[in-house]
Each structure stands twice: as structure tokens, then as C-alpha cells.
User: What shape does this take?
Amino acid sequence: MDTRSPGRSPETSVISVSRRTALRAMGLVGASAAVLRALGTRSATAAQPDSPPGDWFKPGMTHSGHGQVIIGDGPIYLSHLPMFLFDNDFFGQRGHPHHYQVILEVSFGGAGADDYLIDRQETGAPLYTLAPSPFHMLDLVAPVPENSRLSSFTGTIFRGHFERQRDPQPFDIEPAMLPNDVQVDVTRVIYGHEFSFHPAPLEHLEYILFGEGEDLFLAHRITRPPDFDQILPVRIEDHTFADEELRQGIIVAVPDRDNTVSERLMDGDAVSGDARSAGTGILLASGFEIDAGPEFYFEESELHFPAVDDTQAEIDADFGFR
Assistant: This one.
């Protein structure tokens, strides 16, 4: 499905709602009756539509602050924090800004770059996230015209997960906002996928392989709700992928595992994998060994449809109910 739309502009249907606010505005499981009344007709049993709403292709529908997981320290990679937004309506604001799985290779500039490297070295925290200035996702993954591709943006780096500052942090990280904004220069889009409305289920567990040399990572391939987001480091035995192959995106299937949360790769797992090009589908290698390291990012509840959130007290506080 081609979602490109000419003439996108921030003043038209601009979306400024954060992912966490959107999540809480989507008929949440366990939400109070007062919240559900405030949300109108949405409910936890809302049906996924068969096709894009009529205004799906209007300008501005992917404009938002696109939160990212930061991976590595050179090269640096970003993994977009996605959500399934099939009906593109939350609190009367239209859009589907987070309906994409995207992995970028980037470089950091400015004082924020030094902040990040120093903080990571000093604390050893396994998770950092980026809260960028708003931009149109389609200007990054499907620009119109081609020469309008987004090449840079700015953002704030957080130690831990910036959207969970009131929640316990993964790995008991002491959360902190680093003092200076960072300039993000986009080197390449390694993987960009818009969620389909009714895709076929994956036959096996699948990941996106990216990295450089021996510094390799897997990100779970997200396709249909309910799903999960997971990132972890890996070693590949019995095969060496060229850096150019890694830069273009590689899909790795694990034939002996079902595509479920319980079957996902975990620290210490050694499994056999098959690899194909993300762009062409051409088989690149088969039967190589994948040695999994500890996952440093995992999210499940936000990748249902509607999204699931069981933090009732926080929901009530956000919407002004007691």
C-alpha cells in the first residue's frame, strides 16, 4: 500500500499527541467507565477496520514526536517505538504517526552527543531512548518527492525510557534526562515497514538483523496485533554477512520457533536461522547459528489493538478522574 502523499505540511492535521497519551485514549483494557465515556465510542473490543480510513492519505497524518530506542555507540542505531493505529482517531485528532516499524543508522552531533557517550560509559545503563522534535514519518521512510527525504532532526536523550518516568524503569535504571539536545543526522533507513491492515501471520519467529562487523543486533519483526517489540545483541556463527547487506536490512527467520512472546529468543539461546534480504526477499544464507544475548528492550502491551494498559491509577490521573 502506497501511503505517500504530496504536499505534506505541519499546519495541516498536525498530530501532537504522544504515544502514551494515544495509548490511554484508545479504549484501554481495565479503564474506568468515566474514561471510556470520555473516549466516546472506542472500547477494548474495537474491531480492526478492513482498509485505511478515507483521510488516511491526507497531509500531516504521520506528524508526531517519534520516540526511539537508542542502540550502540558507534555506529548508532535508532528503533522507532511503534503502535497499531488502524482507526487513526484519538481524542478527535486524526493521524497514524506510529503505524510503522523503522530502524535507522544515525550519527549524533552537538553537545548532546558527548553527554550520551559519557553517560553510557559511566553508568553502563542498557537502555537509552530519544524524544525527538516532531517530524513526518513519511518524510523519512517514503518522501515525496525523493529529494525531500528527512536527513536530520533534534531530540532529547534519556537514560531509561522517557515515556515511563512515573513507572518503574526496566533494569531498575535510575532515569535521567541528559542536559543537552542532540543533533541526529540520518545516515540511512535500514528497515521501514508500514503495518498492513490484515497481513498473513508469520509462519515462524522473525527478526530484523542489523549492525556492523561483530556488533550485531536483532529487532523482532512486528506485523500484526497482538505483537511484541524486542531488541537484543547476537552473535552469528557459520556465516559472515557483508556490511552492505546489513545496511540494507536482513530478515532472519527461526524455523524451530513459533512467532510468540514465549518462544522469543532469550539470553543464552542458540538456534538455527535463515536469512533473506528485506528489500528483495532473496535468500542470503541458511542454517547458520544465532547465539542470543540479553534483551535490552521489550514491549508487548502497546502492540495490541486497541493498545493495553493496566496502570489504572495513572490513567485516572492523566484524565483528571479520582
Q: What stands out?
A: The mean pLDDT is 83. Residues 19-317 form one domain. The first strand starts at residue 63 and ends at 64. The first helix runs from residue 19 to 24.
